[in-house]
Amino acid sequence: MAGRDRVVHLLRQLERAACRCPAHSNTFHQGSGAATCTVRKTDYAFEMASSNIRYGEGVSREIGMDLQNLGARNVCLMTDKNLSRLPPVKAVLESLAKSGIKYKVYDNVRVEPTDTSFKDAISFAKNDSFDVFVAVGGGSVIDTCKAANLYACHPDADFLDFVNAPIGKGKPITGAVKPLIAVPTTAGTGSETTGVAIFDYEPLKAKTGIASRAIRPTLGIVDPTHTLSMPERVAANSGFDVLCHALESYTALPYNQRSPCPPNPINRPAYQGSNPISDVWSRHALNVVSKYMKRAVRDPEDLEARSSMHLASVFAGIGFGNAGVHLCHGMSYPIAGNVKTHSATGYSVEHPLVPHGLSVVLTSPAVFNFTAPMCPERHLDAAEILGADIRQVKRADAGAVLADTLRQFLFELQVEDGLGAVGYSLDDVPALVRGTIPQERVTKLSPREHSEEDLAELFSASMKLY
Q: How many domains does the chain divide into?
C-alpha cells in the first residue's frame, strides 16, 4: 500500500502542474502538432538529464573505490584554499590514499569565479594528463572543475567558443570529456546535478557561463556531514539559492512556449522551461526549504535540518537543471559582478563579495510580484508552501501575497535590507540593467515578457526590502 500511496501522491503533484494560468494552461497534455520543428516556432519536447547521485552520511569514503572502478591513473582534485584545510577535503584525500589513487590537488579556485580564475584552472588541467576530475566544494569549485575538464579535453578551443551567447559563441559541445565526480560541501547551487558552469566575465563586469549536458558530473556524492562545516551566513545564502531555484523553475515559461524550436536535438538548451517532471522536483524542494531552512541556518549542529537542505539542493538542481531559472538569477549576475566594497560575513575571501544566493534572493519579492499575473495559481501555491494562508486570497493578489511571504521569510533569517544594504543606489540601476541584458538565456524563461524599463523598476523596488 505504501508504494501505491506514493504513486498516487506523485500523480496528484503532476495534476497540480497542469494549472489554469495564462502561461501554463493546456500546455502539458497536448499530443498534436508535435512532429518536427519545420512547422513550429516553439518547442514541442523536453528531456531530463541529471548526474547520478549517491547520498548518505559518510559516503565520501567510497570515492577512492569509485576511482578504482573507473580505472583512474591520474586524478585532478579541485577545491579552494579554505576548504583544503577542512574535513570534507581531508575525508576525500584519505579515501584516495587508502585506494592507492595517484592525484594532484589544485586549491586555487576563486569563490565566485571569473574568466581569469577559470583560465588558471584550465591551464593547470592542460599541463598534465588527467583521466578523472574530482571537485570538492561548493558551486564555485564544481563549476571551475567542469570548465577545466572541458577545455583540457578540447585544447584547441578558444575560451569563448563554449561560453553562452551573446558574450560567447555558444558552440555545442560535441567531443567527449573525462569523468567528473562532484562532492558538494554547500547546500545550495545543485551544481553536482547540472551541466552549467557560471563565472564573472570581467571585461563586461557581467556573469555568464557554459551550459551543456555534456559537462554535467558523472556522479555527485552528497555527504550531509560536509554541510556541518558551513558558517551560518553561508548556510543562509546557499539556502536562498535553493529557494530561488525552486521558485523560478516552478514559475518558468512552459517548455512548449519556449522558442525557437531546435532544428536538431543537440541544440535543445539545458534550460528548457517548466515541465511536469521538473515541477515535481522543484515543488518538493520548496516544501523542504519551508520546513528545514530556518533550523539549518540557526543551528549548525542540526544534522537533520542540514541533511534535508543538502537533499533539497539536489532536488532543486534536478528541477532547475532541466527547466531553468529566470529573472532573479538573470538580475543577480550584475549584482554580484558589479560589487564595490561589500564584505560578506562567513566567507574567507579577500575581495569584495555579494554571495550568489544573496544576490539572487534580494530581488525575489519584486520579481515574483511582477511575474504572478502570468501564472497566479503557481505563485499562490508557492506562497502557501512557505506558510501563507491563501484561503481568502484572490488570484489578482497572488504576487503581493508571495512577495510579502518572501519578505517575512528573509526578515526572519536576518537578510540585508535590499540592494542598498550591499552597496547599491538608484544611480547604479542603469548599469545593473545593462548587466542583465546579456542574460537572455535565463531571462527569456520569465513567464512575463519584460522591457529594460521593467528591469529598472524591479531593481529600484529591490533597493529596500522591509
A: 2
